[in-house]
Amino acid sequence: MKNKNLKIVVLGGGESGFGAALLAKSQGLEVFLSDKGEIRDNYKQLLIKNKIEFEEGKHSEERILAADWVIKSPGIPKKADIITKINAKKIRLSSEIEFASAFTNAKIIAITGSNGKTTTTSLIYHILKQANLNVGLGGNIGTSFAKQVAEENFDYYVLEVSSFQLDDVQNFRPYISLLLNLSPDHLDQYNYNYEEYALAKFKIAENQENDNYFIYNKDDEMSQKLLKELDLKVRKIPFSLKEKFHEGGFIENGNVVVDFQDSFSMKIEDLSLVGNHNIANSLAASIAGKILKISNENIRNSLMTFQAVEHRLENVAEIDGVNFINDSKATNVNATYYALESMQRPTIWIVGGTDKGNDYTEIENLVKRKVKAIVCLGVDNQKIIDFFKDKKEQIYSTSRMEEAVKISKSLAQNGDTVLLSPCCASFDLFKNYEDRGNQFKKEVLKNHN
């Protein structure tokens, strides 16, 4: 970054916004942060402490539109008025990951996909840490990437990246990128066009060259379709649960196998993560490990010792022979599909919340096969009740977590599972999916020593 006279404006004063502002300041750039809402007190104190100029409760348009480079937090909608004006003036508009990547020579491993991002990002980070590499974890998870570039000196970054962050990249070029899977999500931000959303995900690989790697899911139809249409220069390495490759990750005789340079394999039953989706995630992570020349022994140990991400198929407790699982992070139908698919026991399913245009036909057969009773938890449960009422006899409607868990406990017998996997956003009754998951855990463990 040669030009020290650049005027930087950061929109949004949360984790990624503060991180970007701190990095700009540390690089000696002129920086101003603007948040249309209120900035949380802890970030405000950090801005003051670091002498970063900011405003809240408004966007001073004249000041923002005088910027050379605007860094936008992923939570600000693309159609927001200020964004339209920035684009009209042709001011460079970037996400925090794009901005931060301009100031580091570290190798970046970037992970995207509709489901499994957090788990796979955390798993790859675990593999690299176990191999004693000097590595940071960031993006959509953990500490802001830009803040780490400003304050740390890592050789590697493992980043979870969303389509919203990828919308605003120009030169972002990871050493290894992973696209785990695609299913319709956040379509309200992409003109209700699935392909437009999928293409945003593929931006993770568009700047990669033939000395970089793109790990992709050969079983994913939309990924296959777009790979044929896009002219990606990167070296592509597939994984699949259905077919085998000379170079890639696959399943053979109850083992996960990666053939890349040499061969790695381990028994599926030794993986710490359960369910087919997690076998796929483990394959993708193992390929990344092999590319980085991490030893088979290290990869194997990491896959055996990894602890699942909180709120993602998290085992809460077994009480009187009933298993309680918190999958509050499943905010779309596809995520719940994976959860139900991995259930081995009769399941009481807690579902509901703010519907994002859900189509429940995708999980209809799984619900028929695996679910013993449905407990709806939301302000308005009618859509779920209407869809499943002819398919399941036992459907209950609740609007409090306490009530939902109480009913689930009364229905469950020794050998059953109670699964919170809501398919929906949490904002009707909870602050966020973490709050929903924490309340579930609290109610499950109440009166249990």
Task: Please give a handful of descriptors for the protein shown.
single chain; 449 residues; alpha/beta; Rossmann fold; UDP-N-acetylmuramoyl-L-alanine:D-glutamate ligase; Protein-Tyrosine Phosphatase, Chain A; six-stranded parallel sheet; 22% strand; globular
CATH homologous superfamily annotation of the largest domain? Mur-like, catalytic domain
The geometry reads as globular
CATH architecture of the largest domain: 3-Layer(aba) Sandwich
Placed side by side, the strands forming the largest sheet appear as 7-8-6-9-10-11
Average predicted local confidence, pLDDT? 92
End-to-end span in angstroms?
57 Å
Number of strands: 20
- Biggest sheet details: 6 strands, parallel
What is the helix content?
25-40%
Number of domains: 3
The helix/strand class is alpha/beta
CATH C-level class of the largest domain is Alpha Beta
Q: The CATH topology of the largest domain, please?
A: UDP-N-acetylmuramoyl-L-alanine:D-glutamate ligase
Radius of gyration from the alpha-carbon trace, in angstroms: 23 Å
Number of helices: 17
β-strand percent reads 15-25%
Low-confidence stretches: none
GO molecular function: ATP binding; UDP-N-acetylmuramoylalanine-D-glutamate ligase activity
Catalytic activity: UDP-N-acetyl-alpha-D-muramoyl-L-alanine + D-glutamate + ATP = UDP-N-acetyl-alpha-D-muramoyl-L-alanyl-D-glutamate + ADP + phosphate + H(+)
Binding site for ATP: 113-119
Domain Mur ligase C-terminal: 311-423
